[in-house]
Each structure stands twice: as structure tokens, then as C-alpha cells.
Design goal:
The structure holds 2 protein chains of 2 kinds. Chain A is α+β, with helices and mostly antiparallel strands. Chain A has 2 domains: about 1-235, Rossmann fold (3-Layer(aba) Sandwich), CATH 3.40.50; about 240-355, Beta Barrel (OB fold (Dihydrolipoamide Acetyltransferase, E2P)). Chain A is built from 9 helices and 19 strands. In chain A, the strands form 4 sheets. Chain A has a 6-stranded mixed beta sheet, with helices on both faces. In chain A, strands 14-18-15-16-17 form a 5-stranded antiparallel beta sheet. In chain A, strands 2-1-4-5 form a 4-stranded antiparallel beta sheet, with helices on one face. In chain B, helix 2 (about 50-60) packs across helix 13 (about 260-285) and helix 7 (about 155-180) packs antiparallel against helix 10. Chain B has one domain (about 60-285): MetI-like fold, CATH 1.10.3720.10. The model of chain B has no long low-confidence stretch (mean pLDDT about 85). Chain B is mainly alpha-helical. Chain B has 13 helices and no strands. The chains are: A alpha+beta, B mainly alpha. At the A-B interface, strand 6 and helix 2 of A face helix 8 and helix 9 of B.
Chain lengths: ~375, ~290
């Protein structure tokens, strides 16, 4: 059964089109992450689902019920905000129970739910404190608790971890994942952080300019991005893009712009459709798919280049260099010593690469 | 020599204003305090009579009227200006069009002096010129609105004029406060199913506490100092029915040759202002620690 169904959703602010003809179906119990750079419309879409923005056109169904014109409180959703948005003059308990009081629930029921939620989130000892007396992580827990007590099918998260420091962010990220496994309800999670997206999501929707670019599992998006934008957005460090031409000479061969001593063989790459000879393309390869040294020499594609800058990151070292005047990054083992100016042989298997059309940047 | 100048220049530059402040403000406050302990009448004379002037002051029925009036004025003025200013601010905060123009219109009375406000309202409320005449000319022959010339109601006309002048300012204070409220709080409350009334009552108004505090302090001292408005609007009349303490002080000091008693009333007013200001300053300075 579908938990959320968005049909042909459009939203304009005056002349400005923010979302256009957007369709999205989310299954029950699914964890969907809306990922994109700021201004791509991901938070706007979440606000539309929550009913905090009136949409221009289209329909929204939650649990099979058309809620397009329902008030936020009647939609069966809970929401967590980036700024926590806790009611500052109420205690934690007051914050948790405010919505239930508005709904006119009996006192014992409110007590029961607040107790249950605070046990799950381990905030029992904080119930009598005001938000000002809590740390960032505790505040966000309370904010999650406020959604939890509502006992709803759908949770909406609007960049909930962006205001926290890196360590706390990692901790709470795991907690949100645990919470999802325990509660098994539908969650929509907005973020601009691709690591959060990769780690949490059942499926990721990458958005750009109010359109969903790709909607798929994290693995699929990572390995088979549909266009150059998605490929560049997912993955850290980001993918290398080499500009060049594909020559068909009974097998596809890549000719790098700016010259390359050998002509690498792309036979291993699975094209979506057969392509014309002399197509201008971007060849994308992730730094972590590049191998070095002896291993590289056995790869269908290999070449040598000069180390320009290297960034040790502990387990790995990221090396920056150039090939034919184009930037190229690759990872080497953190224990290998390198020096600026070293020549290194690198190689990769085209099966792990992504090739995009030069003009429309779609996957080929 | 140059070194000496350099070292003391700030003090030298500030000295004249400091002297003027000490003499003209604190010096004359002290002088007034001393005068209130003498039996001065037309001219100051330095024959001390202890608290006699204060005893006479509180025995004077005219002072009673002025103090009663002050309380009526203070309470009504503050409550009405606060409620009206808050409502205007809330309505103006609903993302309406031409907000800037409307805000200016409401704030404009603050730019006018109380003398002008008083004179304008004197004409508006004058039975032969203003509202009463307007309604009678419209055909409501029996219409009566003569608070200005009714000794029981005259004080309320002062409340009307003062509220008209100050509620726009209160609105501006509250509007600034409302603009500072995190949008997400409103969103969270909507998801929690709070009605607009509950949203404002339980979440937004409690956040406005500091604004209430500032507004009350500012309105209180406007009210206690009120002199020009009364002078222009009613002249304290009919009779002395709409006198405020400041008018009493002026009348007794300069028209009725009772400088001693005038000084005593001035000191009582000073204590009134201090009673409001000191807790305010105390809390303000403590917060900035």
C-alpha cells in the first residue's frame, strides 16, 4: 500500500515556478530522502506535503486519503524542523503534550504517550526542563518526540541535523535510523548532505530546479547516476569528469580532449543504447574506482600522471593531478607514501565509469 | 604640556556637558527638594518647616483629584494603548499588502507634539464644532457627545487623545517583536493543531514578555509626565476636574504663588517615576551582565 502519493504537484510563488508537475509515490514504511542543493525545492515540497504551503495545482494523498486541502494537523503527519522550533516558554513535557491537548485527548492518554515517547528517545530526565536549558542534541530529540507522541503514520524531517556539530550529527543519524527500524513508519527526510542521504535512505530523490532528477536506491544512484548533475552531487570526493569523444572502431574507444597517448577501450561499459560514432561525451569515473600501480596496468584503461597535490585523510589519501589539461583525482591507500611531482600509473575498469552526453548531460 | 592635554582631553571635552547635567538636572532636583521643605510662597524663602508642605499637599482636595485622575489615566491609557497596539501589530503581521504605508500612517501621530494632538482633539470633541455637531447635522438631532465639557468625563477625553497618539508607537514595538519570532514555531504549532487564538495565547504572546515590559515602562513615564496634552485639550477643566499632577504642580508654583507646595508635588511625582524606573533599570542592567 502506498503511504504517500503526490500527483502532478505544481507550486508557483507569483511568477516564479518552484515545483512543476511533480509525481512521487512513497510506500508504507519507506525512508525517502529528498536531496539537493539549496533552492532546489526540496524543503518546499516537504512543506507542501505537511500542508504548510498551499499548492497551485495537483493532489496529495496520505494513506489513500486525499489531503490536498486538509489542515496540517488533520493529515496524520509529524514534522521536525532544522531550528528545532520548540516552544521556548514551555517545559519539555509541555512541548510534547501541546499538540495532544489541542486535539482534546484525555489526560491519562497524554501522560501515557509522553512517557512512551520520552522512553524511546531517552529524555525522561529532561521532562521538566525548558528548551533553553537543553543542548542542541537534546533539543532535537525533544523535537522528534513532539512528532512521535502524535502517533502518526508519516514523519517529515526538514534538515534536522544541520544545526548540530559533526560528532553529534553522526550519533543522531544512527538514532534516526534505529527509530525508523523500530517504528517502521514512513519518513520523508530533507537534506543537502549526501552522506546523510546515502546512510539513511531506502530511496533517494535528487532534486534540482523543482524537478526530481533521479529516484532510486542509494546504491543505484551511486553506481548508475542518470545524468552528470546527479553523478557530481553524489559521492565524496566527487566524480572526475573527462571531456572527450567516443570513436566507434568496431569497439568504442575514448579519445580525450587535449590528447592521450593511448586510446582506451570502453568495451566493458554497458551503453543504454547504441551510440553514434564521434559522439562528444563526459567520461565520469569516481576517485575511489581508480586503482594505482601494478593493479592499474592490468586495467583496460591506464595511464600515468604526475602528483600535484595530495590530501591525507587517514585511511586514504586523495591525490589531485591532471591529464591532458583536465583535473583528475584518485584515492590511494593512506599508508602509501607519495610526493609532489611523483609519476603514478593509474587505471580503471570502464564498467565502473559513467558516460554522459556532452550536450544534454544525460547518461549514455 | 601636550602630553597632559592628550591624557586629559576626553575629560576636558566631556566636562561642560557633565557640569550642565549636574547643575541643571540634579542641582535643580536638589533645589526643588529643599524648596519643598520651606514655607516659600511667591518667591523662594529659606525658612524650613519640615514636611509641612507635604501635609498641606495631601490635605488639598485639588491634589486628590489630580492623583485620582492620574490613576484613571495611567491604567486606562496603558491598557488600551497596549491592547490596541498589540492588535494592530498582529493584524499588520499577517503578510498584508502595502504594509509599509499602513505602518507609517499608524506611527505618524507619534511625530506630532502633544500640544497639536490636544488642540486637534479639542476641536474634534468640542460639542459645537466636532463629532456632536457632525452627527446632529447628519440628522441625529438628539445625539450627545459632550465629554469634553462634562467634569466627570473630561479625564477620559485625555485618555482618548493620548491613546490615539501612542498606540501606533506600541504597535511598532510589538511588530518588531513579532518579526523576531521564528517562522518554524508557527509551522510547528499548526502541525500540532493549534488554532490561531491558541497559537498567539500560548506561544507568541509569552515570547513578547520583554516587549510588554518595555512598552509599559515607556507608557508609564509618558503618563506621569503628561502636562502639555491636558493643557491643550482641557486646560485642566472644567474647573480642575481633569488636572493631572503635573498641571497641579505648574498651577500652584507659578499661578497661585505656592512654590513650596508646588515643589512638594514635584517631588512626589519624581518618586512616582523613580518607583517605575529603578526596577526597570535594575532588571535591564542585570541582564546585560
Amino acid at each position: 500500500m502506498n503511504s504517500i502519493e503526490i500527483k502532478k504537484l505544481s507550486l508557483n510563488f507569483g511568477e516564479v515556478v518552484v515545483l512543476k508537475d511533480l509525481n512521487l509515490t512513497i510506500e508504507k514504511g519507506e525512508f525517502l530522502v529528498l536531496l539537493g542543493a539549496s533552492g532546489c525545492g526540496k524543503s518546499t515540497l516537504l512543506n507542501c506535503v505537511a500542508g504548510l504551503l498551499d499548492i497551485t495545482d495537483g493532489q496529495i494523498f496520505i494513506n489513500g486519503k486525499n489531503v490536498t486541502w486538509d489542515e496540517p494537523a488533520q493529515r496524520g503527519i509529524g514534522m521536525v524542523f532544522q531550528s528545532y522550533a520548540l516552544y521556548p516558554q514551555m517545559t519539555v513535557k509541555g512541548n510534547l503534550s501541546f499538540g495532544l491537548k489541542n486535539a482534546g485527548l484525555p489526560k491519562e492518554e497524554i501522560e501515557k504517550r509522553v512517557k512512551h515517547a520520552s522512553e524511546i528517545l531517552q529524555i525522561e530526565s529532561l521532562l521538566d526542563r525548558k528548551p533553553a536549558a537543553l543542548s542542541g542534541g537534546q533539543r532535537q530529540r525533544v523535537a522528534i518526540g513532539r512528532a512521535l507522541v502524535r502517533d502518526v503514520e508519516v514523519f517529515l524531517f526538514d534538515e534536522p541535523l544541520s544545526n548540530l556539530d559533526a560528532k553529534l550529527r553522526t550519533e543522531l543519524r544512527v538514532e534516526i535510523k534505529r527509530l525508523h527500524q523500530k517504528l517502521d513508519n514512513t519518513m520523508i527526510y530533507v537534506t543537502h548532505d549526501q552522506i546523510e542521504a546515502m546512510t539513511l535512505a531506502d530511496r533517494i530523490a535528487i532534486m534540482r530546479d523543482g524537478l526530481i532528477q533521479q529516484l532510486d536506491t542509494p546504491k543505484k544512484i551511486y553506481s548508475n547516476p542518470v545524468n552528470k548533475y546527479v553523478a557530481g552531487f553524489i559521492g565524496s570526493p566527487s566524480m572526475n569528469f573527462l571531456k572527450g569523444t567516443i570513436l566507434q572502431n568496431n569497439k568504442p574507444i575514448f579519445k580525450l580532449e587535449g590528447g592521450w597517448c593511448e586510446s582506451p577501450d570502453l568495451s566493458n561499459y554497458i551503453f543504454q543504447e547504441s551510440i553514434k560514432a564521434e559522439t562528444q561525451v563526459w567520461l565520469g569515473i569516481r576517485p575511489e574506482s581508480v586503482v594505482v600501480g601494478g593493479e592499474a596496468e592490468n586495467m583496460p584503461v591506464n595511464f600515468s600522471l604526475e602528483v600535484e597535490v595530495f590530501e591525507p585523510m587517514g585511511a586514504d589519501t586523495l591525490v589531485w593531478s591532471q591529464i591532458g589539461g583536465q583535473e583528475f583525482r584518485f584515492m590511494i591507500d593512506g599508508n602509501t607514501s607519495v610526493n609532489v611531482g611523483d609519476r603514478v600509473t593509474v587505471g580503471f575498469d570502464p564498467a565502473h565509469a559513467s558516460i554522459f552526453d556532452f550536450d544534454n548531460e544525460e547518461r549514455l | 604640556m601636550l602630553n597632559y592635554l592628550e591624557k586629559h582631553l576626553p575629560k576636558i571635552v566631556l566636562a561642560p556637558t557633565t557640569i550642565v547635567m549636574i547643575v541643571c538636572m540634579y542641582g535643580f532636583i536638589a533645589w526643588t527638594g529643599l524648596l519643598s521643605l520651606t514655607k516659600s510662597r511667591m518667591m523662594p524663602q529659606w525658612e524650613f518647616v519640615g514636611l509641612d508642605q507635604y501635609v498641606r499637599l495631601f490635605a488639598n482636595p485639588r491634589w486628590d483629584v489630580a492623583v485620582d485622575n492620574l490613576f484613571i489615566f495611567l491604567i486606562l491609557f496603558i491598557i488600551i494603548a497596549l491592547v490596541l497596539g498589540l492588535l494592530l501589530a498582529i493584524f499588520l503581521d499577517q503578510k498584508i499588502r502595502v504594509e509599509g504605508a499602513i505602518r507609517t500612517i499608524y506611527l505618524y501621530p507619534m511625530a506630532i507634539s502633544f500640544i497639536v494632538t490636544g488642540t486637534a482633539w479639542k476641536w474634534i470633541l468640542n460639542p459645537g464644532l466636532g463629532i456632536e455637531k457632525l452627527f446632529r447635522d447628519l440628522g441625529f438631532a438628539g445625539f450627545e457627545f459632550r465629554w469634553l465639557v462634562d467634569s466627570d468625563m473630561a479625564i477620559y477625553t485625555i485618555v482618548i487623545a493620548a491613546v490615539w497618539q501612542s498606540s501606533g508607537f506600541v504597535m511598532a514595538l510589538f511588530l518588531a517583536g513579532l518579526r523576531g519570532v521564528d517562522d518554524n514555531l508557527t509551522k510547528a504549532a499548526k502541525i500540532d493543531g493549534a488554532s490561531t487564538v491558541r497559537l498567539y495565547w500560548h506561544i507568541i504572546l509569552p515570547l513578547m514578555r520583554p516587549v510588554f515590559f518595555s512598552a509599559i515602562v515607556i507608557l508609564t513615564h509618558i503618563a506621569i509626565k503628561s502636562f502639555d496634552l491636558v493643557q491643550a485639550l482641557t486646560g485642566g477643566g472644567p474647573g480642575y476636574s481633569s488636572d493631572l499632577p503635573a498641571n497641579f504642580m505648574y498651577t500652584f508654583s507659578f499661578n497661585r504663588a505656592q512654590i513650596g507646595m508646588g515643589a512638594a508635588s514635584a517631588m512626589i511625582m519624581l518618586f512616582g517615576v523613580l518607583a517605575v524606573l529603578i526596577p526597570y533599570l535594575y532588571s535591564e542592567l542585570r541582564e546585560k551582565k
